[in-house]
Structure prediction request, 193 residues.
Amino acid sequence: MSERILLPKTELSIDRRGLFSRGARLALSGTAVAMLAGIGSGIRPASAATMSADIDTLNVALGLEHEAIAAYQVGAESGLLSKGVLGVAVGFQSDHKQHRDVLIKTIRQLGGKPVADVKHKFPVDKLKNEGDVLAFALGLEEGAASAYLSTIPGFENRDLAKAAASIMGVETQHVAILKNALGQKPIEAPFIM
Prediction:
């Protein structure tokens, strides 16, 4: 493979209105949904400790999804987002709701108890304009992508690892779109460390 194929274009230009009109709303892949939704019946035998660790990891991911849903609600209700950006934010929130729902179902199928949503404390007083809301969302999406990346090697069940990687891919796409909307390079480096 040539370096040109491996490295993404950094001149990608997507204006905020174009995000919505080009259908940039991203969804959890059908493969990941199928992997997670079917995990309970197809899981290979594992020790109780291993199963418990996988459930704990899924609950951490679920907590992140709860936080993202709440954060996008804050952004949507802020009155600071233009119509096109609001549409994209609501689309991203929908992605997180789908992630949440599949995680809850999977945790239950594995015999665990999904963590409940909690009251989130967001820096609402610091959100003064659309850029502030987008930067806030970007920070949460970067954290979520990083968290999913760190969980992948720890799953005993490889189907769970694949599904986490699929969700991480959606989170990183959210990151790239938000960075672009903020005028930043969507992809800073060919590797994430």
The CA atoms of residues 117 and 165 lie 23 Å apart. The domain at 27-181 is CATH 1.20.1260.10 (Ferritin). The chain has a mean pLDDT of 79.
